[in-house]
Design a protein that fits this description.
The complex is a heterotrimer of chains A (941), B (66) and C (59). Chain B is of the alpha/beta class. Chain B contains two helices and three strands, in the order βαβαβ. In chain B, strands 2-1-3 form a three-stranded parallel β-sheet, sandwiched between helices. Chain C has one helix and four strands; from the N terminus they run βαβββ. The chains are: A alpha/beta (941), B alpha/beta (66), C alpha+beta (59). Chains in contact: A-B, A-C.
Chain lengths: 941, 66, 59
C-alpha cells in the first residue's frame, strides 16, 4: 500500500509497464507509529478538517478518522509549525515510540507491473460559483457532502443536525437537486450524476429519523431517478411513510431573510403557479465530476475521455480504457453509485487478470510451513505477556503489578512486561521464549484481539505452536483508555481480565483447520450476455467453464436488441461474442439443458444436467447464476388488439428486420413504465427510458418529419445517457409526462390507434393518433425456485436473486461458492451486464485461485453419543452447515454432523442444542464457564 | 449502601458490540470500571446457562449485546 | 515460465472501487500496489453517514 503517492509517468505496454510513483513524506514512521494520539493532543496548530468537509477543526498532525487504514498519523507539511517555521516539534518530543521524523523526503520510485487499474474516484461539485444558490454567502446553504457529516455520529455534531449559522435545530430543510448536473447553463456538466436523487431521499429520511416527524423535508427535483435495486421502494416509503415532500420544480432564486438565517425560496409549481416558502436550511445535491488531477492523470497516460470528461470505455468492453493493459473502474468511468462501482472494480480486476494469468502466483510469496508441536495431553504451561503500549496502558494501569499478579495464577509458567508487545523485536523474543520455556499456551494482555490477534497468532505459528492456543486480555481499549481517571480500579480490572484469559486458554486445545480442495471447474447457468462475458473471462484466466443454457442458442435477451446508445449493432456484436465463446477451448456450451439436481457445497458441487432425456453429472467448484429475465407481457394499453401496438423488444425486432412499417409511420408514441413502478411491481426497470429515448431519436433520424412522443413518469437517463435525452429534445421529440393515477388511454377504433394523455403543461387532454405505439414493458426475472433451492440462494419479493451485500457484494451470494450476474440480479443495460459477468468471474477466481481453502478452527462439532437427532441445529443454522448422517450409514446413522467448511462458528447451534451435543471449538461451554467462574474472585470481595 | 456499586458481566458479540467497546476506547470515552467483558463469537452463542452462572457467581447484572 | 508478463498490478486510487479491485487481484494470486494520494484509504465512502437503500452504516 503506497499512501500519499501519485503517479508520475507510465512507460511500457500491457503486461510490462514501468510506473514512476512519487511518494510524499508522512513525517511519521509507519513502522513505529502506534496511533496513540499523544502527538495530536499536544499539537498547537489547528486547521480546517477536510474529512468533515470543513465543518470542524483538526490538528496539523492527524489521522483522518478513528477507523482510518493505515491507522498512522501524518503531519500536514503546509500547516505544521516546525515544517514551515522550524520551531515547535512538540509531537517529536512527546511521541513514545520516536516515530516522528521531520527529515523524511519525497521519494521517486519505479514499479514494474503487468497491468494498471485506475480508480481515482470523483470530486464533489463545488457550487461556490453558483450565485443563485448563494452557497458561498449563506452559512445555512450546505452541500450534500457537508450534510452527510452533520448526520454522522462521528461527525462534528455527533449526528445531531444543527444549522451552521446559529446551532439552532432546523425545522424545515429543502434539498435542491441537479446542482452541477444536467446543467449546461451554469456549468458544463450535461450529464446526470446518477446518485444524487437517491442520496437526497436518504438524507431526508435519515434527517427525519434523527429530528422526528416534525421536521419538514422537501426535495426540489426535475426527475426522480431511483433506478437501482430496491431504490424505488425506498422512494415510495420516503414519500408515503416518512412524509418527505417531493416538488417537481427547479428553484430559480433564494433570498436571505435578514438576520434570521432563514431563506425565502421562490419556485414555480408544475401548473405554473409562483410559490414562496421559507426554509431554515438548504442542502445542495451536488453532482460528481472528474477532478483536475484525474484529468492530468488521463493526459499523462494518454487516455481518451468522454464528453463529460470521464474515462472513455466501450459498451462491450466497459472497463477497458483506450490504452491496452490499463483499466478503469468507479466514478472515473462515469458517475455511479457504490454497488455499480464495486461491480466495475471486480470487472477491472478480471480484465487485468486475463492478461496477467500466465504469471499468476509468480510474485506472491508462499509462506514456509513450520511443523507444529503436539501439545495434547500436556499440562498447560501458560506464558503471560503484559504490554505497556508506551504510556497508553502503563500510564493508567500498574503493569508491573499485573505482571506479578499473573505469575501467581494457576498454570502460569512465565510472565513479562513489554514496552510494545506488537513490535517486531518482541515477536522475535516471544518465539524464543516459547521454545526456551516450552510454553504451550500464550496470553497477551494488550489492546484488542480484533486488530492484533492475527499478528500474535502468526508469531505462535512461527514458534511451532498451534495458533488457537492464544488468548488476549483487552487491557487498553476496554480498560486503560476508558478508565484513565481511575487507575486503581483499572489495574484491578486488568488483573481480572488476565485471570479470565488464563483460565479460558488453559482449557483450550490445538484446533485443526479443515482443508478443502477446490474443483477448478466453473459452471455458469445462463448463456446470455452476462453469462457469456463471465465464461470468456474465466476461460481467459485459464479455467474450464461450462455454460448451461436451456434454450437452443446462446444470446439471451440481447437477441432482441437493435443497437446500443453509442450506435453499435447489437446483433453483429452478439454474433462476434458467440463465435468467440464457441471457439474458446476452455468453454463447453450445453444447449437445451436443464439442471435436474445439485449435491455438494463450495469447491465440490455435483450437478446433474438433463438434456434430451439424458442425464449426466458435472463436477464443479463454483457456480455463477446468470439466469436472466424476460419482458413483461402487457394486458393494458390495448396490447394485442392491433399490430401497430408493440412492446419495446418487438419494435427492436422490427428495426433489425428493417420493417417498412417503421419508415412509413407518421406518428410514433412511446409509453413508459408499462408494468414497472406499479403497486404490484414496485421497481424501476432501469433501461427502458434510455432505450425509448434512443429509439425515438433513431425514428426522428430515419424520418425527420415523423411526430414522435414519449409519454413518461420520470425520465431516467442516468449518467452520460442524459446526452441522448438532450439530443432527443433538440431533435424535436416531444416528452409528455403522466402520473400513475392518470395513465394514458389507448383506443383502437375504425382502424385507428388513439392515445389520450393529459398534458402536464396545459392540463388538458391531448389526443394522439398513432401508427406506432411502443410499450416500454417491465423486465421480469426468470424466477426459478428449484434452482435457487439447489444452490441455497435467496430471492427477493420481485424474484431477483439477493446478493451477499447490497453495496459491497453485488456479484456474489452469501452462500459460499455461488456468484451472480446480469438481469437475474436486477435490470441493467448491456455494458453493466458485461461488467457484472466479469465481476462474478473475478469473485469466483478469488476462490478458484486458492485451489485449497482452509476454514477457521473455531467451528462447531457434534458429539454423536449425545445427539438425539432432534434436528434443531439443522433447521436453525443460517449457513446450512449441519445435516443428518444417512440412515443407512455404518456409523451414527441419522445423527447430526457439521460440515466444518460451511460452519462460520457463530455458535447458534451450540446454544440451541437441547442435548448439549455440540461443542464450539475455541468458545466451548467449559471455556466460557471458566471465564465466568473466575469472576467470582472480584465479585466475592 | 451509598457507595455500593453493581458488578456487571457483559457478553459482547465479536462482530459488533465488542468492536464498539473497542471504539469507545479509541474515542477515550469514560465509563465505570465495574464491568467485565466476555467475548463471544456471536450473540447466537449465548445460552441461558451463562446468564444463570454469572448471577450465581454473584454478578448483579448481566448484559448481552450483539 | 516462458513469458514476459509481470505478475503484478497497480491500482491507482484507494476508494471503494480501488480497494475491491486490489483485493480481488491479490486474492487471485497477483502482487498488488495500491496507490493512494491521501494519508489513508477509504475514499469518499468513509465520509458518508449511511448508505441507501438499506441504511447500513457506510463505515
Amino acid at each position: 500500500m503506497l499512501t500519499l503517492s501519485e503517479i508520475k509517468s507510465v512507460k511500457g505496454e500491457a503486461g510490462n509497464f514501468q510506473v514512476e510513483v512519487l511518494r510524499h513524506p508522512r513525517y511519521v514512521d509507519e513502522q513505529k507509529c502506534i496511533a496513540c494520539n499523544a502527538c495530536a493532543e499536544k499539537c498547537p496548530k489547528k486547521i480546517v478538517d477536510h474529512y468533515n468537509m470543513g465543518l470542524a477543526k483538526r490538528k496539523s498532525i492527524y489521522v483522518e478518522y478513528a477507523q482510518a487504514v493505515p491507522l498512522k498519523y501524518r503531519i500536514d507539511p503546509a500547516s505544521c509549525i516546525y515544517l514551515t517555521k522550524g520551531k515547535c516539534g512538540a509531537c517529536k518530543k512527546l511521541c513514545p515510540t520516536g516515530a516522528v521524523d521531520f527529515d523524511q523526503q519525497p521519494q521517486l520510485q519505479t514499479y514494474d507491473v503487468g497491468a494498471l487499474i485506475l480508480s481515482p474516484g470523483f470530486k464533489p461539485f463545488d457550487p461556490t460559483d453558483f450565485d443563485s444558490y448563494q452557497y458561498a454567502k449563506l452559512p445555512n446553504v450546505v452541500t450534500s457532502m457537508e450534510f452527510e457529516r452533520l448526520l454522522s455520529a462521528s461527525g462534528p455534531t455527533m449526528g445531531h443536525i444543527t444549522r451552521p449559522s446559529d446551532g439552532k435545530d432546523p425545522k424545515k430543510i429543502a434539498w435542491f437537486q441537479c446542482v452541477g448536473s444536467r446543467d449546461v447553463n451554469k456549468c458544463d456538466n450535461f450529464y446526470c450524476s446518477s446518485v444524487c436523487c437517491m442520496y437526497a431521499v436518504k438524507e431526508a429520511v435519515i434527517a427525519k429519523e434523527h429530528a422526528g416527524d416534525d421536521l419538514d423535508c422537501a426535495v426540489f427535483y426535475m426527475d426522480i431517478r431511483t433506478h437501482g435495486k430496491d431504490f424505488e421502494r425506498y422512494y415510495d416509503a420516503a414519500r408515503d411513510k416518512h412524509g418527505v415532500r417531493f416538488l417537481r420544480s427547479r428553484v430559480h432564486s433564494i433570498t436571505e431573510i435578514s438576520d434570521t438565517g432563514d431563506m425565502e425560496v421562490r419556485y414555480v409549481t408544475e401548473d405554473g403557479e409562483l410559490k414562496v416558502e421559507i426554509f431554515d436550511m438548504i442542502v445542495l445535491s451536488i453532482g460528481l465530476e472528474s477532478s483536475e488531477q484525474q484529468l492530468a492523470l488521463a493526459q499523462k497516460l494518454d487516455l481518451k475521455l468522454t464528453d463529460g470528461k470521464f474515462c472513455q470505455t466501450g459498451t462491450f468492453a466497459p472497463v477497458e480504457t483506450s490504452r491496452k493493459g490499463i483499466y478503469v473502474c468507479g466514478a472515473f468511468q462515469g458517475p455511479k453509485d457504490i454497488p455499480q462501482a464495486v461491480v466495475d472494480s471486480s470487472a477491472a480486476a478480471a480484465a487485468a487478470s486475463e492478461i496477467l494469468s500466465p504469471s499468476r502466483n509468480c510474485l506472491t510469496k508462499a509462506k514456509p510451513v513450520i511443523p507444529q508441536t503436539d501439545v495434547r495431553g500436556e499440562r498447560p504451561r501458560v506464558g503471560v505477556f503484559v504490554c505497556s503500549c508506551g504510556i497508553n496502558i502503563a500510564g493508567v494501569v500498574d503493569v508491573k503489578a499485573v505482571t506479578e499478579y499473573a505469575a501467581g495464577l494457576p498454570y502460569v509458567e512465565y510472565t513479562t512486561n513489554n514496552l510494545f508487545a506488537c513490535s517486531q523485536d518482541t515477536q522475535d523474543a516471544l518465539t524464543q521464549i516459547i521454545k526456551e520455556k516450552n510454553l504451550n499456551r500464550i496470553v497477551v494482555a494488550a489492546c484488542t484481539p480484533k486488530t492484533h490477534e492475527p499478528l500474535f497468532q502468526e508469531t505462535l505459528t512461527n514458534a511451532g505452536l498451534n495458533k488457537y492456543l492464544f488468548e488476549m486480555a483487552n487491557i487498553r481499549n476496554q480498560d486503560s483508555w476508558v478508565h484513565k481517571n481511575n487507575p486503581e480500579l483499572a489495574t484491578e480490572k486488568a488483573k481480572d481480565l488476565v485471570r479470565m484469559a488464563v483460565s479460558k486458554i488453559s482449557l483450550g486445545d490445538a484446533l485443526e483447520e479443515a482443508e478443502l480442495n477446490i474443483n477448478q471447474t466453473a459452471m455458469i447457468v445462463g448463456g446470455g450476455i452476462a453469462g457469456m462475458s463471465a465464461a470468456r473471462s474465466l476461460a481467459a484466466q485459464g479455467y474450464q467453464t461450462h455454460i448451461i443454457e436451456k434454450a437452443d442458442q446462446l444470446g439471451g435477451q440481447a437477441r432482441n436488441l437493435y443497437q446500443t446508445l453509442a450506435g453499435e449493432d447489437v446483433q453483429a456484436k452478439l454474433d462476434e461474442m458467440i463465435a468467440a465463446v464457441e471457439a474458446e477451448a476452455n468453454i463447453q456450451v450445453h444447449l437445451n439443458t436443464q439442471i435436474a439436481n445439485v449435491e455438494g457445497f463450495v469447491g465440490n458441487f455435483k450437478s446433474t444436467l438433463s438434456a434430451n432425456g439424458k442425464e449426466n453429472v458435472l463436477e464443479h467448484g463454483v457456480v455463477l447464476m446468470a439466469t436472466g429475465a424476460s419482458p413483461h407481457q402487457p394486458t393494458e394499453y390495448a396490447y394485442g388488439k392491433d399490430p401497430r401496438i408493440l412492446t419495446a423488444l418487438e419494435l427492436d425486432r422490427k428495426l433489425i428486420a428493417d420493417d417498412p412499417m417503421i419508415k412509413e409511420a407518421q406518428t410514433a408514441v412511446f409509453i413508459q413504465c408499462v408494468g414497472s413502478r406499479e403497486p404490484d411491481r414496485p421497481y424501476c426497470s432501469r433501461v427502458c427510458c434510455t432505450h425509448a429515448v434512443d429509439n425515438a431519436l433513431h425514428l426522428k433520424k430515419t424520418n425527420p418529419d415523423m411526430n414522435v412522443f414519449v409519454l413518461y413518469r420520470d425520465i431516467r437517463t442516468y449518467g452520460e445517457k442524459e446526452m441522448a435525452y438532450k439530443k432527443a429534445r433538440e431533435a424535436g421529440v416531444l416528452f409528455v409526462r403522466f402520473s400513475l393515477d392518470n395513465k394514458p388511454q389507448v383506443t383502437v377504433q375504425d382502424g385507428k390507434v388513439t392515445v389520450t394523455v393529459i398534458d402536464h403543461v396545459l392540463g388538458r387532454p391531448l389526443e394522439l393518433e398513432t401508427d406506432l405505439l411502443t410499450l416500454a414493458t417491465a423486465i421480469i426475472p426468470n424466477k426459478d425456485e428449484k434452482l435457487a433451492q439447489f444452490f441455497k440462494v435467496p430471492m427477493n419479493a420481485d424474484g431477483f436473486f439477493v446478493e451477499r451485500h447490497a453495496k459491497l457484494g453485488p456479484s456474489e451470494f452469501a452462500t459460499d461458492g455461488a456468484f451472480l450476474c446480469g438481469l437475474a440480479h436486477y435490470p441493467k443495460p448491456i455494458d453493466e451486464s458485461i461488467a457484472q459477468g466479469k465481476a462474478a468471474a473475478a469473485r469466483a477466481v478469488t476462490l478458484l485461485a486458492r485451489e485449497k481453502i482452509f476454514t477457521s478452527g473455531n467451528v462447531a462439532q457434534t458429539d454423536p453419543m449425545n445427539c438425539s437427532r432432534c434436528g434443531v441445529c439443522v433447521s436453525i443454522c443460517p449457513y446450512s452447515a449441519p445435516s443428518f448422517i444417512a440412515q443407512d450409514a455404518r456409523m451414527n446413522p441419522g445423527k447430526a454432523e457439521i460440515n466444518p467448511v460451511l460452519c462460520k462458528g457463530c455458535g447458534l447451534c451450540v446454544a440451541s442444542c437441547r442435548s448439549g451435543a455440540i461443542h464450539l471449538k475455541g468458545f466451548d461451554n467449559d471455556q466460557i464457564f471458566a471465564q465466568i467462574f473466575s469472576l467470582d474472585e472480584v465479585i466475592g470481595q | 449502601m451509598s457507595d455500593w456499586e453493581p458488578k456487571i458481566v457483559s457478553f459482547l458479540c465479536n462482530w459488533c458490540s465488542y468492536g464498539a467497546a473497542d471504539l469507545a476506547g479509541v474515542g477515550r470515552m469514560e465509563y465505570p470500571a465495574n464491568i467485565r467483558v466476555i467475548r463471544i463469537p456471536c450473540s447466537g452463542r449465548m445460552s441461558p446457562k451463562f446468564i444463570l452462572a454469572a448471577l450465581r457467581e454473584g454478578a448483579d447484572g448481566v448484559w448481552v449485546s450483539g | 515460465m516462458a513469458n514476459n508478463v509481470i505478475g503484478a498490478a497497480m491500482v491507482v486510487g484507494g476508494g471503494i472501487a480501488g480497494m475491491q479491485s486490489a483485493l480481488d487481484l491479490a486474492d487471485s494470486g497477483y502482487y498488488v500496489y495500491l496507490v493512494e494520494q491521501g494519508p489513508s484509504i477509504g475514499g469518499v465512502m468513509s465520509q458518508l453517514d449511511k448508505t441507501f437503500p438499506t441504511n447500513d452504516c457506510a463505515m
